[in-house]
Amino acid sequence: MSEFYQLTPKDAKGEPYPFTQLEGKVVLIVNVASKCGFTPQYKGLEELNQKYKDKNVQILGFPCNQFGHQEPGTNEEIANFCSLNYGVSFPVLDKIDVNGDKTDPVYKYLKSQKAPQPWIATQKPFGTRWTSPSPKSNPNSTRLPARSYCRNRNVQNASWLDLKEDTSDLSPTSAREKFYQLSPLDNSLSPFSFNQLRNKVILVVNVALYCGFRFQYKRLEALQKKYEHRGFTIVGFPCNQFLFQEPLTNEKIIERCRNKYDVTFPIMNKIHVNGPETDEVYKFLKESKHGLWGTKRVKWNFEKFLIDRDGNVVARYSTFTTPEAISGKIEELLQQKKM
């Protein structure tokens, strides 16, 4: 018997839920949260459940409060929320840890399995989904054929993307100079010429106050205070394109950033970072530094572009790369002399 079927997590009532009852089924395991920006995926998961439950497909939800404390409820509260808001009928089990010293045995097992290309993971975000082998296609398999990250509230039509930093070759000289020719609008709709940023190391970040990663505001400000006297600055661009997580006006955004996070770095006019209305700054950044597999599209809030003293876009970091993780690269760039 596969080790998978020997696992026995607890259900929402604290009773054993032996995986032996899953033999012969295709299983989709999802770590879930009721206050996450991706919570609407509950609806899509339930639609999958209704569509395939008679074909030996089983979805299992494991609530987890480790990502931005977005699942604070009790098991009973979670079950009521799922049932009342999304009509969830698939099992939502006991709340667990999926990372760290208290990782549940189910997730220890899942994470130990090597998923085949191209879905090898480099991050551990919420919304990770696992599927078990189809017994018909490979009855003896103990490997998990897919671990996938959904960046879309529509589960059935999701775009499966992994996020990691890109550190490919530098932009040509003409592109470097173009950076300083950019002049976006600041939060009061006045031109903010990037020419004033010459000889600085710059971190450009698309931000949102209602995003689960908004805690990064404090960490960004810590970077600003640590390095600004050495010629470093952060420039934040509010964006409402990712699940409408920045609905406020410029004035309200600035007020909340200052009052709640003590932000001192420039917060600009709210813009689009993708699509036909993409701001010129992001057209330049995305053309200069592509993402994983050559993609240009910004995947989520708090992606980061790092620019050196000469206007080169030298690195692109995912949402999951914390500001402090970039400090080593910032130090390196600050020590370099301008060409």
UniProtKB/TrEMBL annotation:
Chain segments carrying region Disordered: 126-146
MF GO annotations: thioredoxin-dependent peroxiredoxin activity
Signal sequence range: none
Thioredoxin domain mapped to chain residues: 170-335
Keyword Membrane: no
Reaction catalysed by this enzyme: a hydroperoxide + [thioredoxin]-dithiol = an alcohol + [thioredoxin]-disulfide + H2O
Low complexity bias (residue ranges): 132-141
Pfam families membership: GSHPx
Keyword list, A-Z: Antioxidant, Oxidoreductase, Peroxidase, Redox-active center
GO biological process: cellular response to oxidative stress
InterPro entries for this protein: Glutathione_peroxidase, GPX_AS, GPX_CS, Thioredoxin-like_sf, Thioredoxin_domain
Taxonomic superkingdom: Eukaryota
Family stated for the protein in its record: Belongs to the glutathione peroxidase family.
Protein name: Glutathione peroxidase
Source species of the chain: Candida viswanathii
